[in-house]
Protein backbone atom coordinates (compact mmCIF):
# COMPACT_ATOMS: atom_id res chain seq x y z
CA UNK A 1 0.00 0.00 0.00
CA UNK A 2 2.98 2.36 -0.24
CA UNK A 3 1.84 3.63 -3.69
CA UNK A 4 -0.65 5.90 -1.97
CA UNK A 5 2.23 7.75 -0.28
CA UNK A 6 3.92 8.89 -3.49
CA UNK A 7 3.03 11.53 -6.07
CA UNK A 8 2.00 10.06 -9.43
CA UNK A 9 3.64 11.27 -12.65
CA UNK A 10 0.27 12.59 -13.84
CA UNK A 11 -0.05 14.87 -10.81
CA UNK A 12 2.55 17.25 -12.28
CA UNK A 13 4.17 17.73 -8.91
CA UNK A 14 7.73 19.04 -8.93
CA UNK A 15 9.80 17.63 -6.05
CA UNK A 16 10.70 20.36 -3.60
CA UNK A 17 7.75 22.57 -4.59
CA UNK A 18 6.23 24.59 -1.77
CA UNK A 19 2.50 23.78 -1.75
CA UNK A 20 1.75 25.56 1.54
CA UNK A 21 -1.26 27.83 1.10
CA UNK A 22 -2.46 26.15 -2.10
CA UNK A 23 -6.23 25.65 -2.40
CA UNK A 24 -7.40 22.02 -2.31
CA UNK A 25 -10.30 20.85 -4.47
CA UNK A 26 -12.09 17.51 -4.18
CA UNK A 27 -13.91 16.10 -7.20
CA UNK A 28 -17.04 17.96 -6.06
CA UNK A 29 -15.73 21.19 -4.58
CA UNK A 30 -13.36 23.14 -2.35
CA UNK A 31 -12.15 21.51 0.88
CA UNK A 32 -9.52 23.89 2.24
CA UNK A 33 -5.90 24.99 2.00
CA UNK A 34 -2.60 23.19 2.42
CA UNK A 35 -1.06 23.83 5.85
CA UNK A 36 1.85 21.49 5.32
CA UNK A 37 3.21 19.39 2.46
CA UNK A 38 5.92 16.76 2.37
CA UNK A 39 7.50 14.87 -0.49
CA UNK A 40 9.15 12.36 1.83
CA UNK A 41 9.77 9.11 -0.08
CA UNK A 42 7.18 6.54 0.97
CA UNK A 43 5.31 9.08 3.09
CA UNK A 44 4.43 12.09 0.91
CA UNK A 45 1.23 13.80 1.98
CA UNK A 46 -0.59 17.08 2.58
CA UNK A 47 -2.09 18.33 5.80
CA UNK A 48 -5.15 20.35 4.79
CA UNK A 49 -6.91 22.94 6.94
CA UNK A 50 -10.59 22.43 6.13
CA UNK A 51 -11.78 25.75 7.55
CA UNK A 52 -14.49 26.99 6.96
CA UNK A 53 -15.90 23.76 5.49
CA UNK A 54 -15.09 21.60 8.54
CA UNK A 55 -14.35 24.16 11.23
CA UNK A 56 -11.33 23.31 13.35
CA UNK A 57 -10.53 20.15 11.41
CA UNK A 58 -7.46 19.14 9.47
CA UNK A 59 -7.16 16.11 7.22
CA UNK A 60 -4.22 14.18 5.81
CA UNK A 61 -4.25 13.66 2.05
CA UNK A 62 -1.78 11.01 0.83
CA UNK A 63 0.12 12.20 -2.26
CA UNK A 64 -1.10 9.21 -4.28
CA UNK A 65 -4.68 10.51 -4.42
CA UNK A 66 -3.63 13.89 -5.83
CA UNK A 67 -4.66 13.95 -9.47
CA UNK A 68 -3.13 17.30 -10.41
CA UNK A 69 -1.15 20.20 -9.03
CA UNK A 70 -1.76 23.48 -10.85
CA UNK A 71 1.11 25.77 -9.85
CA UNK A 72 -0.26 28.71 -11.87
CA UNK A 73 -3.59 28.61 -9.99
CA UNK A 74 -1.94 27.42 -6.74
CA UNK A 75 -4.49 24.60 -6.54
CA UNK A 76 -4.21 20.90 -5.72
CA UNK A 77 -6.90 18.60 -7.16
CA UNK A 78 -7.69 15.44 -5.21
CA UNK A 79 -9.36 12.34 -6.65
CA UNK A 80 -11.89 11.89 -3.85
CA UNK A 81 -15.23 13.50 -2.97
CA UNK A 82 -15.78 15.91 -0.11
CA UNK A 83 -17.73 13.24 1.79
CA UNK A 84 -14.92 10.72 1.37
CA UNK A 85 -12.43 13.23 2.75
CA UNK A 86 -14.78 14.31 5.57
CA UNK A 87 -15.21 10.66 6.63
CA UNK A 88 -11.46 9.91 6.60
CA UNK A 89 -9.77 8.94 9.88
CA UNK A 90 -9.37 11.92 12.20
CA UNK A 91 -6.03 13.77 12.02
CA UNK A 92 -4.00 14.73 15.05
CA UNK A 93 -0.44 16.11 14.94
CA UNK A 94 0.47 13.47 17.55
CA UNK A 95 -0.25 10.73 14.99
CA UNK A 96 2.00 12.10 12.25
CA UNK A 97 4.78 9.52 12.56
CA UNK A 98 2.55 6.68 13.77
CA UNK A 99 2.79 3.67 11.42
CA UNK A 100 -0.63 2.37 12.48
CA UNK A 101 -2.28 5.70 11.66
CA UNK A 102 -0.63 5.80 8.23
CA UNK A 103 -1.74 2.23 7.56
CA UNK A 104 -5.31 3.11 8.57
CA UNK A 105 -5.27 6.15 6.26
CA UNK A 106 -3.83 4.14 3.37
CA UNK A 107 -6.50 1.46 3.82
CA UNK A 108 -9.28 4.05 3.98
CA UNK A 109 -8.26 6.04 0.91
CA UNK A 110 -7.39 2.90 -1.09
CA UNK A 111 -10.87 1.50 -0.47
CA UNK A 112 -12.56 4.76 -1.50
CA UNK A 113 -11.55 5.17 -5.11
CA UNK A 114 -13.28 7.74 -7.24
What does this structure look like?
The chain is α+β, with helices and mostly antiparallel strands and 114 residues long. It has a single domain (2-81, 98-111), classed as PRC-barrel domain (SH3 type barrels). Helix content is 16%, strand content 29%. It has two helices and six strands, in the order ββββββαα. It has helices at 82-86, 99-111, and strands spanning 23-26, 29-38, 45-49, 58-62, 66-70, 75-78. It has a six-stranded mixed sheet with strand order 4-3-2-1-6-5. It is globular and about 35 Å long. The relative contact order is 0.23.
CATH topology: SH3 type barrels
Overall geometric form? globular
Helix percent band: 10-25%
The main β sheet shows up as:
6 strands, mixed
Radius of gyration: 13 Å
Keywords for this structure?
6-stranded mixed beta sheet; 114 residues; 6 strands; SH3 type barrels; alpha+beta; globular; 2 helices
Topology diagram in text:
Blueprint: E1 23-26, E2 29-38, E3 45-49, E4 58-62, E5 66-70, E6 75-78, H1 82-86, H2 99-111
Parallel strand pairs: 1-6
Antiparallel strand pairs: 1-2, 2-3, 3-4, 5-6
Quick overview:
With 114 residues, this protein is α+β, with helices and mostly antiparallel strands. It has a single domain, classed as SH3 type barrels (Roll). It has 2 helices and 6 strands.
Amino acid sequence: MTDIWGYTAGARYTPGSDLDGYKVEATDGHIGKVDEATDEVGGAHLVVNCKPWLIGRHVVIPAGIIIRVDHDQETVYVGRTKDQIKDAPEYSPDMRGDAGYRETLAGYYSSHNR
